[in-house]
């Protein structure tokens, strides 16, 4: 099967909790026990655990011999040594901040995932509430027949043009928010997106289908909406349009590449002032 407007499903997701705290603690301990270079003015250096300046001497704890040694301060490039140490400290602080921010983001994602009911489905975000979007019953329509799409079995179609449709001109679920957000919980690792529906003889067109003669290969042509998406849990995603939607009929869809098995959760965008 060929499909226009394909979008890739994001890769796997792992929730890490207290492991980040342990990692951060170990990271800090590692820094405290780390060795660094005590630079000399002749271009060489000594690997040390620490050093201190006492009068005209520099005393340092050698990392190689694990003993305190000393050298004339005139031979040590203190400016370069201190500059490199400062750079390392700044990098360590930035790493610690990144770890903390990542931990915070994962906790927020886990909180989002817990909001989404168990079981496959799509949910419209309405403030602090989630509105369940009922699945639509899609049908394959040719010029000769109209048959209900079976998700688990291929459709018996003949060569030519067809459409995948939902009965009726309007969805029962909608919003005046022109930038709607949805959560989708998948039943398996499938592709998903938002599509804009057309109309045909009083019904909504999910996508156009072309069945190629001889090979019976099906070319699907949904009107895909450009979206953003974020994975918040195992097979749980947040999806929203990247641009303001015009009033009309839309759907969140889940599908398998290579099969005409699109599952549809339809909604409408009501006319009015964009939110």
Write the SSE topology:
Elements: E1 2-3, H1 19-32, E2 36-39, E3 45-54, E4 57-62, E5 68-72, H2 78-115, E6 121-126, E7 129-133, E8 138-141, E9 146-148, E10 160-166, E11 174-175, E12 182-185, E13 191-196, E14 198-200, E15 203-211, E16 218-225, E17 227-233, E18 236-241, E19 248-255, E20 263-269
Parallel strand pairs: 1-16, 11-20
Antiparallel strand pairs: 2-3, 3-4, 4-5, 6-7, 6-12, 8-9, 8-10, 10-15, 12-18, 13-16, 13-19, 14-15, 15-16, 17-18, 19-20
Helix pairs in contact: 1-2
pLDDT < 50 runs, ≥5 residues: 1-32, 150-154
Number of domains: 2
- Element pattern in H and E: EHEEEEHEEEEEEEEEEEEEEE
Examine the coordinates and then state which fold CATH places here, giving the name of the CATH topology of the largest domain: Immunoglobulin-like
Cα(first) to Cα(last) distance is 38 Å
CATH class of the largest domain: Mainly Beta
Give me the CATH architecture of the largest domain, please.
Sandwich
Mean pLDDT: 82
- Rg over CA atoms: 30 Å
Helix count equals 2
**Helix content class:** 10-25%
Shape by Cα distribution: elongated
Q: What is the β-strand count?
A: 20
Largest sheet: 11 strands, mixed
Tell me the fraction of residues in β-strands, as a range: 35-45%
Going by helix content, strand content and strand pairing, the class is alpha+beta
């Amino acid at each position: 099967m060929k499909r226009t407007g394909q979008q890739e499903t994001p890769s796997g997701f792992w929730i890490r909790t207290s492991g980040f705290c342990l990692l951060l603690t170990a990271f800090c301990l590692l820094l405290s026990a780390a060795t660094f270079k005590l630079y000399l003015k002749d271009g060489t250096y000594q690997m040390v655990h620490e050093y201190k300046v006492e009068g005209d001497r520099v005393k340092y704890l050698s990392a190689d011999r694990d003993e305190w040694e000393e050298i004339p301060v005139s031979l040590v490039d203190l400016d370069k040594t201190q500059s490199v140490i400062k750079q390392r400290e700044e990098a360590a602080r930035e790493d610690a901040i990144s770890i903390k921010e990542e931990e915070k983001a994962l906790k927020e994602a886990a909180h989002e995932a817990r909001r989404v009911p168990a079981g496959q489905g799509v949910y419209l975000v309405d403030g602090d509430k989630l509105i369940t979007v009922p699945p639509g019953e899609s049908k394959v329509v040719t010029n000769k027949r109209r048959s209900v799409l079976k998700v688990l079995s291929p459709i018996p179609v003949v060569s030519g043009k067809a459409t995948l449709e939902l009965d009726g001109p309007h969805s029962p679920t909608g919003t005046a928010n022109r930038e709607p957000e949805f959560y989708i919980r998948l039943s398996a690792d499938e592709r998903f997106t938002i599509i804009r529906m057309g109309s045909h003889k009083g019904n909504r067109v999910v996508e156009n289908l072309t069945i190629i003669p001889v090979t019976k290969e099906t070319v699907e042509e949904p009107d895909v909406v450009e979206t953003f998406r974020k994975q918040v849990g195992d097979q749980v995603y947040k999806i929203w349009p990247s641009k303001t939607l015009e009033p009309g009929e839309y759907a969140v869809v889940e599908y398998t590449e290579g099969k005409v098995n699109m599952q549809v959760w339809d909604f409408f965008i009501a006319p009015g002032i964009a939110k």
